[in-house]
Recover the amino acids of this structure.
């Protein structure tokens, strides 16, 4: 009898443990009827690491901040999207009154404006800064993603000297949406430029066209020239700066600290935000395949409603409903030992949820084995996330009253 009771108790415990392990972060119903291609591709088990942290405000008074980069001395460069301004923030959070001069005119409608900022790997010696932005054209209607670089000259009136455009997305379209764009340097010094397909139907269709720069991730040399080992160099009719295609709108990207490969998190439509490893010459499917549906209450399927097709890459992970990813890092610092190796993703406040959060993913190889939502006091939209030289996690609060927030261990 005793053995039967023990067996029953063990069974109950096992069942409870299994139920706990099966708990998921996302409790809202999915938007789409689609099923994942493999186990664990979506709604991974919730994994709470119990990391206690404090959130402090480094600086306020930023107007729609979009991206953040740390200078070697600990100061920060911050882009203000709509105003098209590049600002310098001191280590103590003081915001310089004078914006950096020499920044080009930007198209600031819709999602446009001054976007990412990145330092050259040899910044200490060459002082080169790279910016991406929505570039207006002379016709007053069309625009495109562009990348420029210049030398940062410090002083009471800082400026980007000798600014030169090193990349322009072609063709230009009359659309205020889906510019991308993150600038990520690989270990070999090549520069990845993530982009969008401009959202409108004309642009969506071109995401599969190698003759178009829409819906592509580009790989260029720091001066804008074409690396000889790019996958479509010499291919008739193809743009030779293309590294991957079939990408929808990529605002989050980073180099994997172990493999050195480019990983990205890209926007889906309604449903279907996804994580991908971006590999040479691969097709990531948009808009032919997707785990999302068109915007609107009808939730009509994208193209033919397919989620898989031979020759097109499956996302390693996707969300339905979406998390609106707009920045990501692989955390490698020492301040948060439990987060080491995790992917941290910043995004917009989801509709129907009260606060803001950072999505944290635990990976085993290329499979998500745990997901956590690190909640921050809201309401707030998080536009970018960076690991500081001090190991703290810095996030940009988007909006007209923008700010830099800093996460440190709770004392």
């Amino acid at each position: 009898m005793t053995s039967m009771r023990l067996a029953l108790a063990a069974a109950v415990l096992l069942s409870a443990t299994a139920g706990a392990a099966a708990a998921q972060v996302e409790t809202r119903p999915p938007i789409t009827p689609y099923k994942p291609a493999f186990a664990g591709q979506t709604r991974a088990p919730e994994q709470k690491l119990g990391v206690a942290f404090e959130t402090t405000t480094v600086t306020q008074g930023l107007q729609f901040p979009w991206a953040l980069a740390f200078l070697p001395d600990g100061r920060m460069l911050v882009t203000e999207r709509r105003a098209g301004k590049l600002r310098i923030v001191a280590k103590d959070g003081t915001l310089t009154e004078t914006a950096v001069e020499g920044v080009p005119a930007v198209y600031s409608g819709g999602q446009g404006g001054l976007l990412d900022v990145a330092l050259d790997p040899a910044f200490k010696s060459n002082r080169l800064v790279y910016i991406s932005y929505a570039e207006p054209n002379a016709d007053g209607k069309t625009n495109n993603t562009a990348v420029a670089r210049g030398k940062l000259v410090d002083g009471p009136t800082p400026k980007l000297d000798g600014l030169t455009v090193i990349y322009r997305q072609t063709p230009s379209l009359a659309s205020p949406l889906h510019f991308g764009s993150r600038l990520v340097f690989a270990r070999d010094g090549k520069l990845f430029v993530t982009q969008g397909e401009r959202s409108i139907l004309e642009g969506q269709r071109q995401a599969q066209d190698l003759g178009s720069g829409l819906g592509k991730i580009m790989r260029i040399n720091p001066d804008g020239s074409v690396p000889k080992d790019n996958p479509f160099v010499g291919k008739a009719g193809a743009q030779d700066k293309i590294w991957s295609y079939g990408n929808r709108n990529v605002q989050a990207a980073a180099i994997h600290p172990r493999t050195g490969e480019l990983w990205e998190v890209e926007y889906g439509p309604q449903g279907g935000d996804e994580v991908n490893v971006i590999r040479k010459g691969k097709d990531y499917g948009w808009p032919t395949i997707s785990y999302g549906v068109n915007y609107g209450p009808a939730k009509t399927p994208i193209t033919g409603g397919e989620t898989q097709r031979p020759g097109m890459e499956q996302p390693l992970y996707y969300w339905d409903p979406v998390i609106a990813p707009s920045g990501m890092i692989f955390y490698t610092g020492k301040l948060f030992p439990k987060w080491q190796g995790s992917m941290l993703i910043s995004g917009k406040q989801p509709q129907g949820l009260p606060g803001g959060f950072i999505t944290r993913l635990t990976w085993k190889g290329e499979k998500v084995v745990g997901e956590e939502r690190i909640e921050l006091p809201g309401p707030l939209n998080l536009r970018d996330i960076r690991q500081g030289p001090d190991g703290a996690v810095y996030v940009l609060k988007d909006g007209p009253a923008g700010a830099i927030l800093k996460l440190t261990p709770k004392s």
